[in-house]
Design goal:
With 250 residues, the protein is an alpha/beta fold. The protein has one domain: Protein tyrosine phosphatase superfamily (Protein-Tyrosine Phosphatase, Chain A). 50% of the residues lie in helices and 8% in strands. It has a five-stranded mixed sheet with strand order 1-2-5-3-4. The longest helix is centred in the middle third of the chain and has 16 residues. It is globular, with a radius of gyration of 17 Å. This is Protein tyrosine phosphatase. It holds the Pfam family Y_phosphatase3. GO terms for molecular function: phosphoprotein phosphatase activity.
C-alpha cells in the first residue's frame, strides 16, 4: 500500500494506515488520510476518493485561506471548517516558559498550538469527528495548506492516541519534506499575499526533528502524560480512547 498518494490537485496527500501500535495492532487502511491543499482536485482524483470511502473532510485552515482556496466540494463527503488559528495567545507564554529562548521556529509555534485554549478546542472538534467516523468503508481526511504544521500536529495527536511510537510519528511528519522538492507548486498554491504572513512563513519552512519532538516535551511538561492531555485538553477519556482504537486499529 502506498503511503504517498499522488492524486491530481492535492498537495502532500498521505495514507496513515499500516503503522504499528504499542498494543500489537496496526492502523487500518482506507480509514484516515492527511493532506495539504485539496482545492484543485480533478474528477479522476474525486473518483479515487469516492472509492476510498471518503465521508469527512476536516479543514484546519483559517477562514481567509478557506475563502481564497476553497476545498473542492462533492456530494459524497462533507467539509467541516475547523480553523486552528487565530490562537488566543496563552500558549505562547506557556511555551516560552519551558524554552527560555532555546527553540526552533516551528517548534515554538507547535508548542503554542497544543497549549493554547483555541488550538485545543480545534483539535477537540477534530477528535469528535474522528469518533463519528465509526462506520465500515468510511474514511476521514484532515488537512491544512501545506499538510505539515496544523495537519502535522493533528497527525501527531491521533497517531499517539492510537499507540504509535514517537519515532514512527516523527518519521511520518518528516515525510512532508519530500513535497518541498517542488518549490513552485508550494509558492503558487500556498502563498496568500493578503493573508497571515506567519502562516505563509510556516508553509515555506521545512519540517525538522526538533520541532515535532518539542510537542511531546511541552505536553509532558504541562500535563504529565499524553493520556492526561487527551483527557483534560481534548476531552478524550478512557472510554472514548477505547472507541477511537476500535475504529482505527485492527
Amino acid at each position: 500500500m502506498k503511503r504517498i498518494l499522488n492524486l491530481e490537485g492535492a498537495i502532500n496527500l498521505r495514507e496513515l494506515g499500516g503503522y504499528p501500535t504499542n498494543d500489537g495492532t496496526t492502523i487500518k487502511y482506507n480509514k484516515l488520510l492527511r493532506s495539504g491543499d485539496i482545492s484543485n482536485l480533478t474528477g479522476k482524483s474525486l473518483d479515487y476518493l469516492k472509492k476510498y470511502g471518503l465521508k469527512y473532510v476536516v479543514d484546519f485552515r483559517s477562514n481567509n485561506e478557506q475563502m481564497t482556496w476553497a476545498d473542492t466540494t462533492s456530494d459524497f463527503y462533507k467539509i467541516y471548517s475547523d480553523p486552528v488559528y487565530p490562537l488566543k495567545g496563552n500558549g505562547d507564554k506557556l511555551a516560552g516558559i519551558i524554552n527560555k529562548d532555546n527553540y526552533s521556529y516551528l517548534g515554538m509555534i507547535y508548542q503554542s498550538v497544543v497549549l493554547d485554549a483555541h488550538g485545543q478546542q480545534a483539535y477537540k472538534i477534530f477528535f469528535d469527528l474522528l469518533l463519528n467516523n465509526d462506520q465500515p468503508n468510511q474514511s476521514l481526511l484532515f488537512h491544512c495548506a501545506a499538510g505539515k504544521d496544523r495537519t502535522g500536529i493533528g497527525a501527531l495527536l491521533v497517531l499517539k492516541a492510537l499507540g504509535v511510537d514517537d519515532e514512527t510519528i516523527t518519521k511520518d511528519y518528516l515525510l512532508t519534506n519530500l513535497m518541498y522538492e517542488s518549490k513552485s507548486t508550494i509558492e503558487e498554491t500556498l502563498n496568500d499575499k493578503n493573508g497571515n504572513q506567519d502562516i505563509n512563513k510556516m508553509n515555506m519552512t521545512k519540517g525538522d526533528l526538533e520541532s515535532i519532538t518539542s510537542v511531546f516535551k511541552a505536553i509532558d511538561h504541562y500535563y504529565g502524560s499524553f493520556n492526561n492531555y487527551l483527557r483534560t485538553a481534548l476531552g478524550i477519556d478512557g472510554e472514548k480512547l477505547a472507541k477511537l482504537k476500535a475504529i482505527y486499529t485492527e
